[in-house]
TrEMBL record:
Name of this chain's protein: CDGSH iron-sulfur domain-containing protein 2
Species for this entry: Danionella cerebrum
Domain Iron-binding zinc finger CDGSH type: 88-127
Cofactor field: [2Fe-2S] cluster
Compartment list: Endoplasmic reticulum membrane; Mitochondrion outer membrane
Length: 142
């Protein structure tokens, strides 16, 4: 049953392409010179619109593989501004110096108070689709 329905659809499409499409194209007011383009009426432009749209779509699909890919971030670097003069950024915190019961440390490198987290990862995640969050150190109170 499915094959018969599919064949009917293909026959309808084929008939349309062989009969209706040539008749449509023959009736189009395709200008041959620049002067004729200027003389096209609004109705002529509306009749040309479907053909121009299809041609624009085909042109876009043809050049799309060659277009540069958009990046969500300006580059692939993670650290964009913190201690760029150093070849390697290392932060050392002595656990004995922790006075609070909870301390959050940045892992997205966007915090203005780096290495302490200022919740900049929320904006970073929204912009990039990333899922980073802070490193949370909890100190048990006795």
């Amino acid at each position: 049953m499915h094959t018969k329905s599919f064949n009917m659809v293909l026959e309808s499409i084929s008939k349309f392409i062989r009969t209706q499409l040539p008749a449509y194209l023959k009736k189009l007011p395709v200008p041959e010179t620049i002067g004729e383009i200027a003389r096209l009426s609004v109705a002529d432009w509306f009749r040309l619109l479907p053909l121009l749209g299809i041609l624009a779509l085909l042109g876009y699909l043809t050049i799309r593989p060659f277009l540069p890919k958009k990046k969500k971030q300006r580059d692939s670097l993670i650290n964009l501004k913190i201690q760029k003069e150093n070849p390697r950024v290392v932060n050392e915190i002595d656990i004995e110096d922790l006075r609070c019961s909870n301390v959050c440390y940045c892992r997205c490198w966007r915090s203005k108070t780096f290495p302490v987290c200022d919740r900049s990862h929320i904006k970073h995640n929204e912009l990039t689709g990333d899922n980073v969050g802070p490193l949370i150190l909890k100190k048990k109170t006795l």
